Amino acid sequence: MLCRTADHLFWMSRYMERAENTARMLNVGYETALLPQSAAVAQTNWQGLLSISELIPAYQAKYGEITARKVLQFMVADEDNPASILSCLRAARENARAVRGSLTTEAWEMQNQTWLEVNRLLRSGQLEADPSQFFEWVRFRSHLSRGVMLGTMLADESLHFLRLGTFLERADNTARLLDAKFHALGSEFHGTDNGRDQEYDFYHWSAVLGSFSAFEIYRKVYRNGIQPERVAELLILNPSMPRSLLACMLEVRQNLDRVANGQSQETQRLVGRLLADLQYGRIDEILATGLHAYLTQILERINDIGVGIGRDFLAAA
Rounded to whole angstroms, how far apart are CA atoms 71 and 110? Predict the structure, then answer.
């Protein structure tokens, strides 16, 4: 496969996954803002959403004061923000158009229709009228896009690069969102503080689980009250949880092995080491060293893997 074709496929799936993850994050922020809380707490929550994507300087340069309405505009419909949902869907569509011949008709039409429809929804005021419904639509289109690709495309290198981009992006987002939510507690997290407000914790961690579509899964796995340690364990180390770090890296390893070439051994080694650490990790050991430090290291390793994939497959020799 040509490097430029692999590059477009890889980034098409990453941008589509990024749009979905941003919608998940913003929907939780919006619904959390409806709960009784002080103005200071509400502003801190919105600031935390910007910090996940490292966009606070860019936001403040354009909008100044952090407010719910401005953050939603910046993260959804701002064409100057490369991480906004609109920008991600545009980039996904442009990458799909560049490799139209490598996609099935259904897969291309799904990308193109999504781009046309998001513009129509934003012009009609859907975001202002009902943000939750708009975010649900973004999630649905992302699910539909993955389903169409799996259901219509040949299981060859094209599909493997699409899956590789999807799960690498998902792993990155899971680590970022977990880090931001746990760091919002105000200090390095080493375990439950019995002095904390239990009611606040319930809504806080319910929102975190909701952003991963993991609330019902948590109840099935643990069958007890929501505990931060269990939330971290589910979203980091559980291979059966679709958005956990371990589940994502299992998919990355599987798809990377299927497209491996003569110069990808180092990238495969990096994936193997990270996967081994996740497979044989224990949540008590992770918390003993501090969750923020652990997740920061995970993000660096995921970034190194992304750089390696770009070097081995996506850059012309």
Answer: 28
